[in-house]
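Q: Could you fold this chain for me?
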Amino acid sequence: MQPSPPVEGEPGRQTFLSASHWEGGRNLLRGIAVLAVTVVVLGILFAKVDGAAVVSAFGMVPPHAWLLAAGVPCALVLTSSSRWYVVLRAMGQTVPWVECARIIVGICPVNAVSPSKSGDLLRIWCLRGRVGAMVTAGTLVVERLNDVLMLALFAAVGAAYFGDGRILLIALLVVVAVVALLGIAIFLPELHLPGGIQRRLREASVAIRLLVRRPGAMLAIVSITALNWLLIVVMVAALLSGIGAHVPFDYVLAALPIAVFVGLIPVTLGGMGTRDAAMVYLFSGMVPASQVVAVSLLYTAFLYWFLGIAGLPFLRGVLR
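A: Sure. Below is the predicted structure, expressed as structure tokens.
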């Protein structure tokens, strides 16, 4: 006979409520801190640039660049949904592509206002009862590792071609770190590490071991990841060209991934401020700061806010 669950007033129930209250309060404080850091970083950034020049740069963007910038997020929804669908299939899970797309779009509003796209964790919630939490988390780890590795490879290729030793060194260090992590996940998943790292290693190990046995799926995932980031690089290069900035495409290929890495540091909402400041620093020798800020704001507007607004009709269904 199973014991009855604790009812209101029992010690177990009180402990659970206390823990939930503490966790909720801690998350609220974390959210307030991230919002505060975002405001401070943006304030410092805009104190150093001419706001009128930023607005003027917006007016310089030609119609074809606006259309391209609007089309890239739409294409990313299709390619990202396809990548997640392939990863799930490779792990033995059959989730319709339309469902993958609905979830991807539905979590965009959360990603737009959360640090480091942590809204992606909602995918675990969306597939609960059908796909195990560890399996879904494994798909997220695979996608994130692919993104980081592809960005680092892009940066390394662009930096090598352009001859920028700083970016090349950073990119190669990231590649080595990701490859080492993959090796640990595959061959040494039982290392005794801190809880969060240990859990991520187990998730990655299960997913990567399955994908290694399916080279066709792995090739498809890598190809889609490369296409995703190539579209984003092309969009940024087109916006820079549209405002009259003469930046070689290979330098955009090298520098943009570094700015994206900085934006993924979970200290601001959607990477705002940190990613912009990194772009100003990386392009400072070629483009006026006001024009770089204009392009970085358009990057955020199209890849975060545009998708966030488009996903609002789907958000309720995702959360439900």
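A (continued): The CA atoms of residues 147 and 225 lie 6 Å apart.
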